[in-house]
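Holo prediction. Input below; ligand is zinc ion.
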Amino acid sequence: MKIARIMLSAAMLLQPFQAGAREQADVLIRHATVIDVEHARTIPDQAIATRGEKIVAVGDDAEVAKAWGAGREVDGKGRFLIPGLWDMHMHFGGGPDLAEENKALLPLYVAYGITTIRDCAGDMPYDVLGWRQEIADGKLFGPRLLTSGPKIEGIKPVWKGTLETGSEADVDAAVAKLAGLKVDFVKITDSTLKPELFLYAVGKVRAAGLRASGHIPMALTVGQAVDAGISSIEHLSYAYKAGVKDEARIAADFGAGRIDRAQAQAELAAGFDPATAMASYARLRDRGVFVTPTLNIERTLAYLDSDDHSKDAFLGLIGPGIRKTYQWRIDRSAKATPGEIEARHQQYQKTAAVMPMLEKAGVTIMAGTDAGFLNSFDYPGLALHQELALYVKNGLSPAGALAAATRAGPKWFGVLDRYGSVEKGKQADLLLLDRNPLEDISATQSIDTVILRGAVQDRTALDRLLAEARAKVARWDAEMAK
Ligand SMILES: [Zn+2]
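Structure of the complex:
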């Protein structure tokens, strides 16, 4: 009797592992080729099970399908599965009246496979902090939102929505406030911030256990910002500047008022030296400083003279208020002389050419677009795909470009254990593509399905998101026309 009872218990324990008793997942993707971005390789005929927001199984299709049943199956045959994309540099803003238009950009990111965005500060930081919470709570549809909150600036800066600082005590108060807001990182810009306070702020931010990024004042070298502890260099132009042989002398001359900004920029433009650059980039690598190129906006602005964007279909997805903020850069560009236009083209080409040097030096490149208000024709969602195409065009491997958009962001935020690969235990943020992005980076745009926090958005659902966004913008346009 006793023995029989023990045998019965053993049988019950074994039961889940017997044929027919499958574990239940929410979603099962069948027969997909998984892209292992880290090792630039493909793993064919895989099944991926997700439950809630997590991946619960990945393996040979036959084995996983035997062990797991699911409420929904997704056909991955002939398709390629990558981790969700991260846009590590975008902005919400344009004034308090544009909150709804900015909020309406969130579904566009999802429709283009971007599952995490990093807002690098604008003029509506408290709205954005609210959206971050609503998205996390499942009350607002959008990609995971990480934000700097209000940026640290000097007194009476060009930018609105900032924490103005004119002394070390001001900086201390600003950092304490940002820590209280539980911002995801800190952005520091320099339109009026004193250079010594910039360095002080970077140090204070790091001491508070936060990451610091920003625009480095002209009177400082990139190396000084690196030594102070800056966590990432935003915009490739600063990486170019770090490769200028006389950077320290030019910074000192500018700081002392011996040359103006235009003169300093002209000297920097003419002074790039590959050996200096490689030494600077080795320092970035050693200090773990990442670079966010934002090449798409650099290219778009450099070629506003020759590229006609007036018929871009994507304009139909951008609200009229945000479209209006584009005009500032367009007007500024229209005033340029032929000589200035030519110089702009050349500077873009020279700056883009540092991409493979960064890769060679082992610097982690983080994909970011600068999309949002002000930045003309740099479209939320689409821009990241254009950004990756520019990386490859300028010398990165497709795998390197993919890593910049899937692994670098999680690595920078210290969450690579939860994001950045298609593995058991990781977040179910996934893209199923029709073509192989390791062969052609433009394949990131061949999106069949997006899985966001475990929820399936198939092509029909993604097209519906875009149609709804287009209809909303059309309604706003009609109201404006009244
Ligand atoms: Zn920016």
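Residues 4-17 have pLDDT under 50 and may be disordered. That is the main takeaway for now.
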